[in-house]
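Exercise 7. Given the components listed, write out the predicted structure of the assembled complex. Treat all entries as one system.
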Amino acid sequence: MSSFSPLLQSAGRRRTTWSEVRTRLEKVANAAVTPLMPADYLDLFHPLRSGAPLRGRIVELVPETKDAATIVLKPGSDWAGHVPGQYLRIGIDVDGVRQWRAYSLTHGPRADGLISITVKAVPGGKVSNHLVHSCPVGSVVHLEQATGEFVLPETLTSDPAGTKLLFVTAGSGVTPVIGMLRNLFPVADEGVVHLDRSRGLDITVVHVAPTRPDSIFLRDLEALDASGSIRLVARYDDQHGLLDVAELATLVPDLAERTTYACGPGGLLDALDAHHAEAGLDLFTEQFRPALVAVGDGGEVSFTSGASVTADGATTLLDAGESAGVLMPSGCRMGVCFGCVVPLREGSVRDLRNGEITTAVPGETAPEGVPIQTCITAAAGPCHIGY
Amino acid sequence: MTVITKQDVNPTAHLTPEDIEQIGVELDAIRQSVIDDRGESDAKYIRRVIDTQRKLELGSRAVLLFSALPPAWLLGTAGLAVAKILENMEIGHNVMHGQWDWMRDPKIHSTTWEWDNASTAEGWKHSHNEIHHTYTNIVGKDNDLGYGIMRVDEDQRWIPMYLAQPVWNFINACFFEYGIAAYDLELGKNLSMPKEKRSEEFKRRAKNTLRKIRQQATKDYVVHPALSIPTGSFLPTLAANFTANLVRNLWSHSVIMCGHFPEGVETFEKKAIPDNETRGEWYVRQMLGSANISGSKAMHLMTGNLSHQIEHHLFPDLPSNRYAEVAPKVKALFDKYDLNYHEAPLPAQVYSAWHKVVRLSLPNGFLATTTAKNLPQQMKMLYAMTTGDKKTRRVAQLRLEQQARRIERAKAEKQATAAA
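Answer.
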C-alpha cells in the first residue's frame, strides 16, 4: 500500500495542476490591470475574440430597395448560430448614442460564418436610417445571441405526403421568412439548389407591400417562384387595394391544408388570428411594429439606481428612464424582443398596446418584482423599477 | 480671501436679483446648445482618449519590464505617469461626473467606472460630485476648502498648528490619492468617534477603500515589479511605479489647488446662502468660486480640462472636450455682468495658491506688515503668539490688523496722489 500512495498523490496533483495554473495566471492578470479587467485591454486589439461580450463587424452593405438594405456581419467567435426565422438584438452607436434594436436574420446559417440582417428605413427611425443610409462598414457593433420562436419545426418533411405551408408576410415582415426560404432553397450562380431537407415541401407565399418598388426581397421571391420552389402571390396596396383576409381562401385555394406562418403589423395579424380561429386553422405569428394606443395617467417613476422622473401616461418607461439617465436595457422598442424586461417592484404600469394594467405589490407579488417590458408600458401612477 | 459677505465691497453687490436670474437663463442656454449638438465626434473623442491612454499604459509598463536600463526606466516612468494622469483627469474624473453617460455605453458610464486611484469611485462621487460641486466654496460645508486640515480663509481663527500647514499641504500633494481616499471617508470625523458609534455605512466604505488600496498597491508595487524580475528590474520597476504615482499626485494636487485656491477666488458664508438658493444664485457662486488656467491644448488635456474650472463648475456634466468652446461665451457673460473671470497661466496660479497657503498659515496681516527691517520683531511676536495663551494671541492679532489697515490706507493715498 505504502508504495502506491506517492504515485497516487502525484497523479492527483498533476490532474489539478493545469486548472490551478490557469486560475493563478488569471489572478495575476487581474491583479496587474486592476481596476480594469484584462478584457478591457484585449478589446483594444481583438474585440471579436472568444470570451469577449458578443460583438460583430459590419463587413458589407447590400442595398435591397431605395430604403432597405441588407447588412452583412461577421459575428464574434462566440456566436452560437441561429435557426432561420429568428432575430437578434444589435447595439449600434447612432450620433454617439448606443441604441439597441431587434432585426430578423435574413439568411440561413452560412458556410462563411457571416450573418445578415435586412433593415428597412422607417420615417424618423434613428437606427434604421443610420444602417440603411450611412452604414459604417468596418465598424464593430454589439450583438446578442439569436432568439425567437418564429421558426419552422425541426422535422419538416417527415410526413410522406409532404408538408404544405403558407407564409403571409407584410412589408418588412418578410425578413424572417426570407431567412427560412434562403435556408430551404439556397441560390447558387446556376440557380436555386434543391436540397434533401426541402424535398416534399409545398410552400405558398402571400406577400403584401404598399407598392412593387417598395417591396424588399421581391426579386428573391420571384426567383424562387420562377424556379418552382414556391408559389408567390404578391399583393400591392396601390394595385390591388388593402388585403382583406377573407380573400385568402380565393388566393390560396388549398388554404385549409396549410399551416400558416404570418409576420407583419398587428392589424393584419389580428385579422388573420380571427379568421384562422373561426376556420380552425393553425397559425404561427410574429408581430412587427405595434400600434401603441392607450394613454394612461402617468406618475413618478423611480429606479433602484437612485434616479427618478415624472412621466406622463403616453411616455414609455424606457423613454422615461433614458431621459433620466438610467442605462436601461432595450431592444426593438416595440414590445417584440423582450430585451428591455426589468422588474416592476411596486406600482402599476399600463401596456400602451392594449391598456392592460400590471401591478406589483411588495409582499403580495413576486419578491423580486413583476417583470415588465419597459418599451411598451407607461406609468399608471407612481411606480418603482428594479433597475 | 474672506467670504464675500464680509468684504468691504461684495463683488456681487451690483447685481439685482433679476440680473442673477438672467445669468442663470443665459448659462442654461449655453449648456443646451452643447447638449443639442453633442454626438458622434464627441463619442469618438473620448474613445480615442481611452484607447490612447490604455495603449500608453500598456506600452509603458512593457518598457518598464526592462527598467534596469536607465533609458527604459526614464521612458517607461514618463509614459506611465502621463497615462496615470490622463486616466485620473481627462477620463476618470469626467466619466464619473456622468459627462459621457449620454452615450449609453455601459463601459464608459458614471455608474460603472472605477479609476486608477486609492479612492473608490463610490466615495469620490459622493464627496466630490455631490458635496463639493453642490456646496462649492461655502466655508464649513465644502470640505475641498482645505480638506478640513488647513486654514484657507481669514475668517478661520488662527491657531499655532496652522504654522505647519505648508508642510502638510506638500505631504498631502505627494500622497494626494490617499489624502482623497481618507477625505472621501471623512476619516478624521469617523476615527474620532468611539468604534461602536461609527455607522455601518462608514465601515462598509472603509472596507471597500482598504481593498481598493490593497489592489492598487499590489498592481504597482508587487505584480509589475515581480514581472520585471527576469531582467533584474524588480527595484527599478517598483521605483518607477512610485515615481509615476508621485508625479500624478503632485500634478493633480496642483491642478485642483488652481481650481479654487488662488488669491481672488471667492468663498461664501454658510449662513448667507439661502435654503432655497435659486439656479441663478448657484451659478453665480460657481462663477466666482472657481479659477481657470490658461495654456496650450496639451495642458488642457493633461488637466482633464479642469483648466476650464469655471466652465466645469457651471456645467459639470457637459463633455470635457466642449469646455474650450463654451469658454468665450462664458467669459463674455462675465464681462457683461462685470464679474471677475479668474484666469492665469499654470505657474501663476500654482504660485498664487501656495502663496495663500503660506499667508494663511500665519496670523492675518502678518505677511502684509512684515518687511526685511522689522523681521526680527515680527518673528519675536510670532513666537509669542505661538507659545502664548489665547489672550496674548488676540491682542497681538488686533495690533497686526491695525497695522495692516494703516499700510493699506497709506498705499491707497499714495496711489491717489500718483493718479492725480
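Discussion: Chain A has four domains: 4-45, 55-143, 163-287, 299-385. Confidence is low (pLDDT under 50) at residues 1-11, 291-295 of chain A.
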